[in-house]
Structure formats: structure tokens, C-alpha cells
Fold this protein.
Amino acid sequence: MESAGRKPRSDATRNRERLIEAAKTVLAGGGPGASLEAVAREADVGIGTLYRHFPTREALFQAVYRREVEQLIELANALEVQSPVLEALRNWVHALVDLVETKRGLLGTLSLVPTEGSKAMYAELSGRMQEAVGRLVTQAVKTGEIRSDITVDDLLSTVYAVGYARAPGPEWKAHVLRLVDIFLDGMKAT
Amino acid sequence: MESAGRKPRSDATRNRERLIEAAKTVLAGGGPGASLEAVAREADVGIGTLYRHFPTREALFQAVYRREVEQLIELANALEVQSPVLEALRNWVHALVDLVETKRGLLGTLSLVPTEGSKAMYAELSGRMQEAVGRLVTQAVKTGEIRSDITVDDLLSTVYAVGYARAPGPEWKAHVLRLVDIFLDGMKAT
DNA sequence: TGATAAACGGAGGGTGCCTCCGTATATTAC
DNA sequence: GTAATATACGGAGGCACCCTCCGTTTATCA
């Protein structure tokens, strides 16, 4: 029995995926009743299974966050062929707002203080994401759809700032999307 | 027996005070082991007493916060006679950093979403505080110790921004104080 | 198809949340 | 001073969550 070569059991992979999905659903909202036991219940697995896959809250957070960002990167790549590019950008930014909501919710609910390790992960993912959406921005500049002095940073930091400044609540998303859309309008080439 | 006219029992007032003090000590740090039961233990009262005085987390938060801000206002008044005024301002701002730390800690530990009621309280207290420290700023401008274009808002919003931007942790206070001192230096009249 | 490494689930011990109520005491009236 | 009573106290108790541990189940591999 070669333990290193053995394929991971199929139920393990499946349960891991279900747990990440459940964690996003249950915890990201951050509402009352959010708990790791609730996550396990939602994923329809035992609490022990949750802890085996994710020994710490941090590990669970990282898994959800990583998956979300990966999807955001894929989305940016997929949108590269869409036109007008500005519309593609708008779609992408709306997805980014979802990410901010999820991240804030998770951090709040799990009451985590970012550790050194998570900061490193954050930096790596953030870099890759920036590169992916950077291509969209460059393209939009090239086609003349947006002002030429706009950078990826302008866009991302504004979305983050707006998203974090607004207090969480039922109106959060609508409010943030509205402001973000105004900003996107402002980016249009005159 | 006129229930409305009766003086509050002395032990009640005392315990209330002890609870507020304990809440500040135990919760503001926000570290693990922070809990309402821990607050009651620290205050040396039963858990029932805590809940009688502060039926909700919000109520406890408000009591601590209000007391802190009142003290900050008194401090500003007391410092009006100190000179140089810039030194008085510096002392006051350091106390403000403590408040930001406490407030962040409490909100985090109690995982509160500000309600309408607390926002109103916040606005009222914030206004009174601004007025009190505003006199210090005005005076410092008059004596020529700081640049004449400095406003109270410049000072307060910078302290808040710096305080909230920096992630909580053991280095938080040192870091924030350093940045704030740099800003204060920058305020000096040339 | 059997052996076994890997994964599962949930009981259980500890803690926190909040309520409820019997007990204790500060205040008031006389 | 003392009795009456409004007021406050403390903590037991019921419930949920946290996390660990381990007996049971199952997917993989020979």
C-alpha cells in the first residue's frame, strides 16, 4: 500500500466541495445562526468531517476565498472575448462586489484576524486577479471605450473602498453596485 | 411607596460602573476568551446582574462608548489651559487613539451591526466631541503653533482613517500612534 | 473479492448565551 | 431603631456551539 500514490477517495473530494459551498452560503451572509455546525448541516456531513477537512476557521476561510478568486480570474479570461469591453468590465466588477461581500461576511462571522500565512495567500491571488482583469482594462483603453488614464488599481481600490466603507445590511449590495456603476460611467471616454 | 421617587440602590450604581469598566478591559482587546460571562466574572457580579443592567450587547456597547467619549470631552476641556497647545493636542489625540481601539474592539468582539439608535447616539456624541476639541485646534491656530488651514475634521478623520485601516494586532497601537505623530508634525506652522 | 487505508459521523465534555426566580438587602415610613 | 417592601442580586438550568476522539463504514488497490 503506497499511501502517497493512492487517489483521494471520491467521497472525500465531494464532501470537501460541499463544505466549501455550504460555508459560502451559510457564513458569507454573516447573519445570526451562522456557525460551523450549521455549515456541516447544510453540507449534509458530520461535524467531524468538517473539522477533518478544515482544522481551523482560517483553513475554511482560505478554501472559500481561494475558490472565489479563482472563479473571478476565470471569469475575467472568459470575458475577454465579449464586447463591448466596457460591458464585460461591468459584469466582472459586479462579480467582484460579490467577492467583497463574501469575504467581509466570512471574516466577520469567523471573527478572524488575518495571519501572516493568509496575507501571503491574499497577495498571490490578488496579483493574479489583477493581471487577469488588467487585460480587460488595457483592452477597453485600446478600443477607446474608457479614458486612457484609468488603471486596474483605480478600479479595484475604488470597489474595495466603497464596499468596505458601507456598513453591512440588507441594502449593502444595492448601494455598492449603484456607486460602482456611477464610477464605471465616469470611466467612459468622453 | 413612591416607586418613581426612590433613589437607585447604591449597589446597583456600583455594579453598573464595575460592569462598564470590566467590559472595557475584557472586550476592547477583542482577544479570545472575551465573553459576557468573562465580563461578569471580571466585574465580580453574577451573570444575571450583567443582563439586568444591559439587556443587549448593544446596550453594553453604548454604555462603554458613551463613557469613553464623555471622558474625552472632559479631557479636551481640561487641556485648554495647557501650553504649548500643540502638546495638549498631541495628548488629546493619543487618547482618541485609545477610543478608536476600544470602539473597534467592542464592535468586533460583540459582532454588532450599528443600529439606527446607536447611529443617533454616535452623531450626538461625535458632535459634542468635535466642538470640544475644535476649541483646541482654533487656539493652536491662533497662537500660530499650527498651520491656519487645519480643521478639526482634518485631524479627526485622519486619526479614524489611520486607525481603521491598520489591521488589529499587537503592533496596532504603536503603528497608529507613529503615523498620527507624523501627521501632527506635519500640522506645525512653518 | 478481500484487505486495509482513508474517511465518515456523532457522542461527549467544555463553554457561552440568556432567562427565570428564590434569596438578600438598601431604602423608606413610622 | 425597626418593619415593610421595592429593588437588586446570583447562579442554576436549558439550549447552542466548539472541538476532539474513536468506533464504524467504505472506496481503493492487489
